[in-house]
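Sample pair:
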Amino acid sequence: MSRLHALALCSLLATHLGACDFESHEPTDPDGGTSARTELPKVGDRVGDGSVTEVRNVGDCRSVIVTHPPLWACTAQQVDAIRKGLPEPDKTAPASGSSNLLPLSSCKDMAAIRRRTLASSLRASVDSQLQQLLQNCSPTVQYSYANAAGGSCRVSYVDASVSSPQPGKQVDGAEQYSTTNVQHEGVDEADFVKNDAGYVYVLSQSGLHVMDAWPAPETRQIAHVALAGAGTRLFLAGDRLVVYARTTPGGAPSSAATCTYGFSCRVQPEPGGTVVQVFDISSPATPRELVRHELSGGYVASRRIGNFVHTVVSEQSIGTPPDLDVMLRAEDVTQLAGAYREKLGQLEAAVAALEDAYFLPTLRTTD
């Protein structure tokens, strides 16, 4: 049997080991019958195409190790020849996500550098797949756990307790309200919630929510706006609201690009592209979009000084064309070297055929 037998062994150990493909080791009761309790497998027992090579105690459980033969029949000479015959990678290509500054005189120069980076990244992917396929030449080891009675061993997980938030301090009136804490006076920072004297603007997975927050006991939502992506943060300045959204949905905003009062700063972009939407909120119940900026780079940082918002994005990686097949396939070790070289040739040709525009960052503005 193949390594898929691992799934069967785990399932059978969790129910009744007597149903496994082990050579039987059934104890008898004093009357000579078979006991309801089933012994664990012993070293040497067969499990499909493998055999038990070790049984040992692990706390209240027992670890059963089964070794299966290789999926492919390979010789050491075949494996060594494949590894030694690999062409040398392009070590001069900039790595994807590299922070090194490179001299560029034109967009064509940028496209050429990023073309080499994509080719190098695809080559690394194929090399990794080659090493994975070579694992078919080695025995595989399967681990399972059971208690002394042949039942499954379960680990209990205790949910961490979460303390209830303390109620916020009630303000005396709408003329008193707090805003985002900032590191430098006069330099505003983006947040997922902003407020003024009467309204609160909040981002959620479903979009932008506008709350009429005064008087406080009568707080209610007066507007909801779907965004062009997953909303992450916003700025509020007078009757203008600047909203950031990520075009790759799911998850919370990354903290990798943030600083804690000037410390632990790391310049890493969030995944996906960035959309910046500017709204007129002179009538908070009916926000009106004024302009939209769509950037191919991931959000890194932003600050507002007066009426100007400064935004930094970074496009570190180059996506693989969606119709490009990067999978390396081989039925046995004799096909592997030829399949590897053929796949490299296909990918190199595909990257060379891409237009320069594919490798350049983009900014599209819609009024």
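Residues 1-36, 155-173, 250-257 have pLDDT under 50 and may be disordered.
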